[in-house]
Amino acid sequence: MTTNINNNFDLDSNNLSNIDKIKFGIVVSNWNKNITDNLYDGAFNTLLKHGANENNIKKLEVPGSFELVYGCKKMQNENLDVIIAIGCVVKGETDHYDYICSSVSNGITQLNIINDTPIVFCVLTDHNIEQSVSRSGGKHGNKGIESAVAAIKIASI
């Protein structure tokens, strides 16, 4: 998904009619905080731009991307309509990157399968910090914006 390219991430008026009633959860990893803060800002501001009620947006911070699964699981018990999981994992010199990326994506997938509150995956899995910067408000847009649009769409189903 690239913000600069039209990948069906526009909202039509049918998606916007009841957005002020949708209850959003956003779980944000504090690891690579400068990146995840940019993603959160993109998501939060996009929700508000499209008419979400600020009082219906709940934020939960977790230490790292691995803990996103637990944070999302806790939020699924909060009577929300949709959750956005925001994280950033940057490849290092060890296999840790592979384990974290696999665990987070599999964990969120499992939560989407077994629970009724959908989770939108906004976890950057980049090979270097420059790629993360480019995807969190740089030349490749802001994936937080895209995740907010996806959250509105999935909550409208």
Question: Can you describe this structure?
Answer:
The structure is a single chain. 43% of the residues lie in helices and 22% in strands. It has 157 residues and is an alpha/beta fold. It has one domain (20-155): Lumazine/riboflavin synthase (Rossmann fold, 3-Layer(aba) Sandwich), CATH 3.40.50. Helix 4 links the parallel strand 3 (82-90) and strand 4. Helix 2 (33-49) crosses helix 6 and helix 3 runs parallel beside helix 4 (96-114). It is globular.
Q: Can you tag this structure with a few keywords?
A:
four-stranded parallel β-sheet; disordered N terminus; 6 helices; 157 residues; Rossmann fold; two-stranded antiparallel sheet; alpha/beta
Q: Topology of this protein?
A:
Blueprint: H1 13-16, E1 24-29, H2 33-49, E2 57-62, H3 68-75, E3 82-90, H4 96-114, E4 119-126, H5 129-135, E5 136-138, E6 141-142, H6 143-155
Parallel strand pairs: 1-2, 1-3, 3-4
Antiparallel strand pairs: 5-6
Helix pairs in contact: 2-6, 3-4
Summarize this structure briefly.
The protein is of the alpha/beta class and 157 residues long.
The residue fraction in helices comes out at 40-55%
Q: Indicate the overall shape.
A: globular
Q: Could you tell me how far the N terminus lies from the C terminus, measured between alpha carbons in angstroms?
A: 21 Å
Number of strands: 6
* Percent strand: 15-25%
What's the average pLDDT? 90
The stretches of 5 or more residues where confidence is low (pLDDT under 50) are 1-5
Count of the separate structural domains: 1
What's the alpha carbon Rg, rounded to whole Å?
Answer: 15 Å
| Strand ordering within the main sheet | 2-1-3-4
Shape-level CATH architecture: 3-Layer(aba) Sandwich
H/E element string? HEHEHEHEHEEH
